[in-house]
Amino acid sequence: MGKLSRLILKRLGLGLITILVVSVLIFFAVELLPGDIAESVLGQGATEETVAAMREQLGLGRPAVVRYFEWLGGAVQGDFGVSLVSGERVSAAISDRFVNTLFLASYAAVIAVPISIILGVFTALYRNTIFDRVANVATLSTISSPEFFLGYILILFLAVRTSMFPAISSLSGSMSFADLLQRTFLPMLTLVLVVTAHMMRMTRAAIINLLASPYIEMARLKGTPPWKVIVKHALPNAWAPIINVVALNLAYLITGVVLVEVVFVYPGIGQLLVDAVAKRDFPVVQACCLIFAATFILLNLAADVGAILTNPRLRHPK
Amino acid sequence: MKKRFTDEDVLLKIRDLKIEGYSDETWVPIIKGVDLTLHRGEVMGLIGESGAGKSTIGAAAMGYARDGTRISDGSIEFDGMELTTASETERRALRGSRIAYVAQSAAASFNPSHKLIDQHAEAPVHYRIKKRMAAQEDAMELYERLRLPNPREIGFRYPHQVSGGQLQRAMTAMAMSCRPDLIIFDEPTTALDVTTQIEVLAAIRDIVDQFNTAAIYITHDLAVVAQMADTIKVLLKGEEVEEAPTREMLENPQEEYTKSLWAVRSFHSPQRRRPADNTQPVISVQHVDASYTGGEKVLDDVSFDIYPGMTVAVVGESGSGKSTTARVITGLLPPSSGQVLCKGEPLPPRYQDRTRDQLRQAQMIYQMADTALNPKVRISEIIGRPAQFYSGLRGPKLKQRVDELLDLIELDPAKFYSRYPPELSGGQKQRIGIARALAAEPEFIICDEVTSALDQLVAEGILKLLDRLQSELGLAYMFITHDLATVRSIADEVVVMQNGKVVEKGPKDEMFTPPHHPYTDLLLSSVPEMDPDWLSTVLEERGVDNLGEAADV
């Protein structure tokens, strides 16, 4: 086990370093803006005095490196500073929103991941049949249409024409869990449709890729039925690529939801980001970017670790 | 081994079998009408070159057509059941239970994700022949009969935790799990070292005897088939050449093709001696230790000299450090201590630090010509690039040089100049590999198992070509091989390696006459001979428990 835990620790360390590098990029990208934050926030109409006052308030007179470490130190403790627009603490503004985004992402993931993998296994089993083609064409068409378009189509048919689900997914604190699920059904479905194709096709490809292996032929020559050949002999060896694609798509569910949240007016972090960018609220933008980056890195890290754990050579060393 | 078979005992009857394969958008015949009759308890050897259709017939005997092939005509009758018209479910019900299969590479044919014993128990549990626990008990008993070490424990390991020879025996045990009537052995020892091969052969022969199982033994190695089979059938390009009982076939082959197979080891290059004057060796490996990053020592104090115009064969089992030595000489792996001299001058340890002229001296020809040639690059460029790099030739001069090189390797320049590697046969590809090495105008070439992926007749051609080039161009070869027959035919000097050490070295004639170092002796006596009694004799001499891995040297 020593080798395995060392390998995993190494990955964790690499992940940490990546987040640090990203934080540097995020912080200094804002510094690179022409003029400085005070000027860009206040716009061209601002007087010299107001700009100077703002600089003073934000502490812009001190070197960027010092401010970076202050910002990072705060961020590690969950303090991202104060919003320039509302004066509210950024962490307070973000935390509710982030929980909402996580909820929507998990809702979509719980449905999309099993469906994709099961569909992938079945399309591999019945490859090149009508079923396979229909599944491929259907998922490919959903992935190739832009998600806001998918969202509007779903609103048209499931909300406007049949009014089965609400078109707008605004939330209130007093809703029951069932209400919540119903309210967020359409954005969830949109996300599911967007991510399924990718995961399903990877599962299918990873399995089919293995079907030419000698051990698959051996399983067939032992009289193993076709479904068992796929589920018992191919799938366990196909996990590594599948886990990676699943992680990428999970990350997308969190970081790529901006458009879907806007379409359904869902109070998630994506909408907050769009608002903050429009209002040049840099502390909020920086915080959102850092959270997105951390999610991405964390999920990929989890995928790496998952791939290591499914490799029998690493799990059972000689 | 003498058995009499009668018509009532017929187990498998194949008549006028035709199989087609799909390639280039059409179906082309692979098997062109083969008959085969196998009796209960009979072992039939199928031999022929690659592409002869041996494995395809083996699979067809299970009613199985590999992906991209189809059984187009003929009948396959197994124990009264016609397989060509049976449903897929009926055919599948035979596989594993009544007909089992042992594949060439056990390492690739065991599923890496499951324990050996679980894979073993899969068929008996599936067919409800045994409960899981009983199947596992039975597996341990079979492991014991096949003389696997720790028979009660070894099954609970994963395939990568077990050595190649042990895996091959575990696979034979797996084939026995349902006590089938027929086992197809598809080149079961081809991927193994000679010292390991012998124990697998003995184990297979024993177990097949004990259970009176019929077997089809597919191989390209005549000496192996002579030990295993009651009858031998020779195939060529999807057609039968001839069939006869083993002894008769060996002593008195009827057809020209069979005779040519039998005579294949006739090529012998006369043995050269080291120059008597004090010529410097072209390559001198001196006290080299090497290891891969952070790993254990792979080479331990390796020293030997290669003199101009001579062939030094480096032999040993896989993992003995033969190829690592080659990597040290070429500079791909810098040694941790010791040095390599080229004509008295020390070579920089890393190839990046070597001059063009030093790089030129160490050219390589690889085992798998398939993977060593870029499939998307024309032959003219494959050979032309080193010619341009080392000699600075351009334009018409470069073309002339490539033509010259193609002539040297006996391929018609007009025909091959602008072709791509996938259009070539295995032997032709290997010739291109040789031409690429020659393009650098080296004095020394490393040949890494260059003939082991080739059929015997083709390999013979390559050896003759290398020999001719050697005398015409005065080349020195370091010939890495595990095949002692090749060593006999081409080497001048022999270096025997084991576990990263040189255990013995000397001129060929001395090396092949006793007394040997015990390890050399083990290697030499493990090479199968054409005599059908060879295996039994060796087993008697060594005792069954003193084979291969078990033999302590």
From TrEMBL, chain A:
This is Peptide/nickel transport system permease protein. Residues 98-303 form the ABC transmembrane type-1 domain. The keyword Transport applies. It is found in: Cell membrane. Belongs to the binding-protein-dependent transport system permease family. Keywords: Cell membrane, Membrane, Transmembrane, Transmembrane helix, Transport. One of its GO terms (cellular component) is plasma membrane.
TrEMBL record, chain B:
The keyword Signal does not apply. PROSITE patterns: ABC_TRANSPORTER_1, ABC_TRANSPORTER_2. Pfam families: ABC_tran, oligo_HPY. Its main location: membrane. SUPFAM superfamilies: P-loop containing nucleoside triphosphate hydrolases. It is a peripheral membrane protein. Residues 12-262, 283-524 form the ABC transporter domain. It comes from the Bacteria. GO terms for cellular component: plasma membrane. It is found in: Cell inner membrane. The keyword Chloroplast does not apply. Keywords: ATP-binding, Cell inner membrane, Cell membrane, Membrane, Nucleotide-binding, Translocase, Transport. GO terms for biological process: peptide transport. One of its GO terms (molecular function) is ATP binding. InterPro entries: AAA+_ATPase (IPR003593), ABC_Ni/Peptide_Import (IPR050388), ABC_transporter-like_ATP-bd (IPR003439), ABC_transporter-like_CS (IPR017871), Oligopep_ABC_C (IPR013563), P-loop_NTPase (IPR027417). Belongs to the ABC transporter superfamily. This is Peptide/nickel transport system ATP-binding protein.
